[in-house]
# Entry
Amino acid sequence: MRFSHVFISLSTYIIFTLMRKFETDVQKLKHDILVEVIKAYDKKKMGSIYEDIPKIIAPGPEPIFRSTLESERQIARERIKIMLGGDSVKTHIVQTIPQACDECPAGGIYVTPFCRGCLGHRCKEACPREVITIVERKAVIDKKKCINCGACVKACPYQAIMNRTRPCIDACYVKAIKMDRDNKVTIDDSKCITCGNCVIKCPFAACVDRSFVIDMLRILDDKSHNTYAIVAPSIVGQFDYVDTEQLITGIVQLGFKKVVEVALGADAILKREFDEWKQKKVLTSSCCPSFKFFVKKNFPDLFKHVSDSPSPMIKTAELIKEKEPNAKVVFIGPCVAKKTEFQLTKNKGIVDCVVSFEELQALFDAREVHLHGIKSTSMNDASYYGRIFAKSGGILEGVKSFVTKENITNFDGVAMNGIRQCDAWLKAFKNNPKVKNFFEGMVCQGGCLNGPLSIWHNSKILPDVDKYGERANRKDPTSSEGMFKEKNA
# Structure
């Protein structure tokens, strides 16, 4: 192959990679349907979406993803329903599409061909229900009696016995995912903490978050008020084919009066959480709603230690509405749990709508907002510390800045990175109240930058967040709230 051909192929690959908007085809499928829903709304053709859009997504004559064309179209109809708010009877944010679940194997413990028929029979001895027998020198499991405890999996010296679990079940740390009599996915709302891990881990998108995009469009259409977009600091690196400043301009072009950093709210609550820690002596952070739900449902005795501070999302909206009570505020971020948080009784009327980064991309594409070459709009609302709230350890770093400033020596904090670390440290705290005295809780691994409704989930975003923090005009978080009020007086 000639060098010029290699160069052209490499250039094409690089351009394709840079222009890729999604991490998976599941995201793209959700995106394509949502784009058509938004277009139908703009054209005032919502009455026929359940017939028109499935034919666009699955044009036929042959099916693309499913066994039949009608199955594809029926699942598309169910996705549209959830994008329009979901089942009116079920108010939970994460809902399921049983029809989309039929491709997923039921799972369970099984013996692979790697079984060596060893003399030890450790698998048999480990089984608490005695459901393993040795037939022709091979282990055989009685599936009717097996309780899937996994003891045999751990005991086998050859790793010849495997536990094949469904991706959604494996993703749900709090065991809220169940199967009904037809082996279709269901969610136990009493256990669910709306972390959204099942949403990103299900390979057929049978677990789906409700959408409020149409609600947002109606808010924008109402010209009796100004509508502000507040964006999570984790937006940095999500739309990596354009600069963040160009992205902000694009959001304004969707019809927003202005874009405000949620990092501003993070600045405002940092000092408050530090003061609360000084008063209570022991504290856990409050910015991650899934963490708060996790503590309340699994460690109710420890919930008194969760900070009383509002989340950065709520605080930012409050600051806007202090100056403009008639304003509407839309949060844009990577979090499923924020869709629950803004609807809590105590938060009613503060944030008016929540949409995701995935949904933002669909809005850009449906309304043909082309970000390439667009002018830049800078944001200077927040400090370095507010912007690094997006990553695990960011809150802890911010609180430590006040600890250092006041020369406090008894502060002992930990950043709990992901649900497993949250569980482990909370158990340690329950057993030993002096193990630490400040706990930053982030349910998503890595923090908000890996939220379930992010477009990209990878470690490369972390340097982007750090760089974005360094670009802040100020280091002191205490100045942000005052400067925001002064600027918007």
